[in-house]
């Protein structure tokens, strides 16, 4: 029984083997049947091609002024499967295409001597390509390379030869046996000799004689002489002449067409298209479409380029709008969903080294085309990046029936039309943005002028870093909408156009080391408004006051002694005394919270935050009325109510959170204990406390708005291509700050006093035509500088400082909150009051349409730069082209 079973298995195996052999014979050897099967409809398959959407556009708040425009362009592409099979006809198509779109070809003359030997050839080339092109022919002479064996007795001579002619000769030698039999003594060398140019061996007799002495006459004779050739550029207009000449003189002429080379190198299915040139002129696209019958395989596809119409005149828009660029591998992995958790995991792990941790979306229903293709474009910065989903649109799909060779059987058919991206209507007022930019730039220039012309007693300030940068922001108090946001210095984001790649390279990566250093200092690719983190200085005191009132540390009538400085003895080292001072040494006497905001008293708010009793040695016992103050924990918590220490949530990429330091943070990061001095510094916006300009203006708007903290909003509405509103974005209230509105009113009154009675004279009603309230800030930063003391005794240390002012108007019914920061201008003749305050004032005048008094009344800040005029922004202008005949990419 076992034998019969074994025999049955053997028969079955032999039968299966015979069937497989027969099938293999049928497919591989029976040619007629194989060819017949190849072209039957049974093997025709459906392939799918993407159709790219047009990107949505971006408008200013009026819904008409274009800020980011999608300009339709036309791309020349080739579908390899539709090209003629005949090489001559195919070359004719390539030549016609090169001539039409302006691609230069190259005619190779080989050997080069043929041009001298054949006067008819030279004459034909001169007539067809032009005598100048022939005269500019480039001779290409390949190096002479040969390998041969060198016996040990010739090694020294060979080394001497290589040393003598090192400019012309390269020799690489490696010891190896010449045959399999072992040979006694040193093993011979296999030498690779390279002489460049090769003609040196022919014309340099000394070199030839020395080489003969080194390796022998037979080896030199065997080297021979390589053939050189000529490269003649054939201009686009002469491409067809070059093709005819290469056909007539096929033994010595070869035409190298870049289009043919691109098609030959392309590793794509024949039914797909290969891009040859983007953004061709409208007339050229029409000409190619009209001559499509004579150019089989040439396809005109519709695409777009991005243009930012106002960015050249208002470069600060670039930081709001951003730019687009080619999608990279990490973005492809992040944006294209996986169909299963396993494929998503493998995708994430496979790209983790280059891309870090990737949160991969899983969508089992995402079939067909991916969301992004390898050569797609994607938003890289600004709203182009943060609203990528809305702006991009969705890919469409065409199906094409192809045969077994990948050749289309019928024209592509659209099965899913692409959905163009939606448009954005920003909250940005284009006219106000431009005026705000010009105002900020004027005051930055004024600050730098003051730095350069400081009198001799302040000569050390001339050594400060040049003043080049700043921020200005305008927001609606009752909505959180950003009306203007200026980051300076700025650049024109049109520079990211691929056609300007050389200019982009030089702009961001200059060859001049000094330019590189200045570029690094200015950080042109950083949006300071949301990513810059700065000490706010005294601009923080409005929040100290509100928190202290709410916590009951003080009342609106509490008075605190301000002698101009606090002397605090070190709690661990007796005899060591620290001094904490006001901006000036003036004794302010006893002041309440409103007066403290008016004169910007450091001592008042240090006492409120950290107490004025423990270890304070320059106050009488009856003046030491604040035992502990708020303490850093309560201060940090209160600042958190206003959004400090966390991102505002504005929908722009790259926002930073700032920093509210705590004892735990200091212990973890600085490895040291918290002190009362740390609390004092935090209370006046110094030390390790940092905010972003956007955080500060939004928090200040909450003071003006009875504690309503809004999320900053940059987009007002999303519309379709016809302007119909798809979604209107409503103001988003983050929280109501847990502070009694009556305390916020006290703070506002103190901020109003800083304008009406304090040093901020440029904002006074009679000078500005407005009722403004606000708070200045002078915040030290950077390295310490040691300078002589004013009295000539010893030295003192100083730092450069920033100039801040943040304020609102009108005072009785706040409408806008405006912030200005000028970096490095804080001690340019009280830069906060005489630079930041007038800058904010002029921005408010621009918003409300107020013309300042002319001349300004006595007591107002004089010699102010003129208020920039409003301008007329261009509206949307549709761009049309041969769309009905163009094919979507």
User: What value does the average pLDDT take?
Assistant: 87
Helix content: 25-40%
How far is it from the N-terminal to the C-terminal residue, by CA?
Answer: 70 Å
Radius of gyration: 39 Å
- Could you name the ranges where pLDDT drops below 50 across 5 or more consecutive residues? 29-42, 177-183, 878-885
Q: Major β-sheet, in short?
A: 8 strands, mixed
Based on CA inertia axes, which overall geometry fits?
elongated
Tell me the structural class.
alpha+beta
Portion of residues in beta strands equals 15-25%
Report the total helices.
Answer: 33
How many distinct beta strands? 33
Describe this structure in words.
Strand 20 and strand 21 form a beta hairpin. It is elongated and about 110 Å long. With 889 residues, the chain is α+β, with helices and mostly antiparallel strands.
Q: What are the key terms here?
A:
21% strand, 33 strands, elongated, 8-stranded mixed sheet, alpha+beta, 5-stranded antiparallel sheet, 889 residues
Brief summary:
This protein is an alpha+beta fold. It is built from 33 helices and 33 strands.
What does the secondary structure layout of this molecule look like, with pairings?
Elements: H1 2-28, H2 31-38, E1 45-51, E2 58-59, E3 66-78, H3 87-101, E4 105-109, H4 113-117, H5 119-129, H6 131-135, E5 138-140, E6 144-150, H7 155-164, E7 169-175, E8 189-195, H8 200-203, H9 205-215, H10 217-223, E9 229-234, H11 239-248, E10 253-256, H12 258-265, E11 274-280, H13 282-290, E12 298-307, H14 317-321, E13 324-326, H15 329-335, H16 341-350, H17 352-355, E14 377-379, H18 382-386, H19 388-392, E15 393-394, E16 396-402, E17 413-416, E18 419-420, E19 423-426, H20 430-452, E20 470-476, E21 482-488, H21 501-508, H22 513-522, H23 528-531, H24 541-551, E22 560-562, E23 565-569, E24 577-581, E25 589-591, H25 593-599, H26 602-610, H27 631-641, H28 663-669, H29 676-683, H30 693-704, E26 708-710, E27 715-719, E28 725-728, E29 733-736, H31 741-756, H32 765-768, E30 773-788, E31 795-809, E32 816-822, H33 831-848, E33 887-888
Parallel strand pairs: 2-19, 12-33
Antiparallel strand pairs: 1-16, 2-3, 3-11, 3-12, 4-9, 4-10, 5-9, 6-8, 7-8, 13-14, 15-18, 16-17, 19-27, 20-21, 20-32, 22-25, 23-24, 26-29, 27-28, 30-31, 31-32
